[in-house]
Specification:
Length: 272
């Protein structure tokens, strides 16, 4: 089974976000919304996940616009990131790459949405740095869609999106902390989020560098106010962390991919 973790550039209009989620039906396992990032992360999975991702993308392109968008999170489009992710033993990276390529061809031709591909040979940060200058889209028009911009469509292994809110720190400190975290296993940004600052991370190899290690690495540098899991986490990553720390780290069995798949009737289990 594949998951598709669609990141949309809308995090403030709850009725719009709910309507977008409804287009994916039962395949939408979780929606995480942030008004300051002005972004929502839709966790989709199931046997028809490609159809669900296409329905959500179509609605977003027709509903949202970058022309008056602001937010602290980097973005290249209203359908900013569309990664396909193998989430069980029945799916592989080969399957994810096939789904990625099919989705990008469809979005480029049907929606006239330029798509940049990422995966084993190019990273998402590479796309953010080079989209349209000098890189050209892999599918779709060569220029940005007038209201929807472009999409980064990927194939990747499961990761953990994780935010750490800092106490009594400023943006300069958050950026220094984020820079100190970066490695092949961690991508990190220091961001101003309202009146507070945040270190926003993607843990791209969470079994090697997971939430507990990142939390502790940051806490050694500056006080941490709170942690925030964005979306879902694999049970294998969760159970590698002592249960006594789950609340502190904003983790819970109910936030695992497996528990949400079980709840949706799509497989998984409720037990570790």
């Amino acid at each position: 089974m594949l998951a598709c973790v669609v990141n949309l550039s809308e995090g403030r209009l709850s009725d719009v976000i709910a309507a977008l989620a409804a287009t994916a039906g039962d395949h939408c396992l979780d929606v995480h919304t942030d008004a300051d990032h002005h972004r929502s992360v839709f966790w989709l999975a199931g046997p028809s996940v490609q159809d669900a991702a296409r329905a959500l993308t179509t609605a977003a392109v027709h509903t949202l616009s970058l022309t008056d968008h602001d937010g602290v999170h980097p973005r290249i489009g209203v359908v900013d990131v569309v990664p396909f992710v193998p989430v069980d033993a029945g799916s592989t990276m080969f399957d994810a790459i096939g789904a990625r390529d099919a989705f990008a061809i469809w979005a480029g031709s049907t929606l006239e949405l330029p798509c940049f591909l990422y995966g084993p040979n190019r990273t998402l940060p590479d796309i953010r740095k080079t989209a349209f200058d000098p890189a050209v889209p892999d599918t779709g028009p060569r220029d940005p869609h007038p209201t929807a911009g472009a999409a980064a469509v990927g194939a990747r292994a499961p990761l953990v999106a994780y935010n750490l809110w800092l106490t009594n720190a400023d943006l300069a400190q958050a950026k220094v902390v984020a820079a100190g975290l970066r490695s092949p296993d961690v991508r990190a940004l220091g961001l101003q989020v309202g009146d507070h600052v945040q270190v926003s991370c993607n843990l791209v190899n969470p079994l090697r560098v997971g939430p507990a290690k990142v939390y502790d690495d940051v806490a050694r540098r500056v006080p941490v106010n709170r942690a925030e899991l964005v979306g879902l986490i694999g049970r294998d990553v969760l159970t590698a962390i002592p249960e006594r720390r789950w609340t502190e780290l904003d983790l819970d069995e109910a936030k695992t991919v497996e528990a949400c798949l079980f709840e949706a009737g799509l497989g998984g289990s409720t037990a570790g």
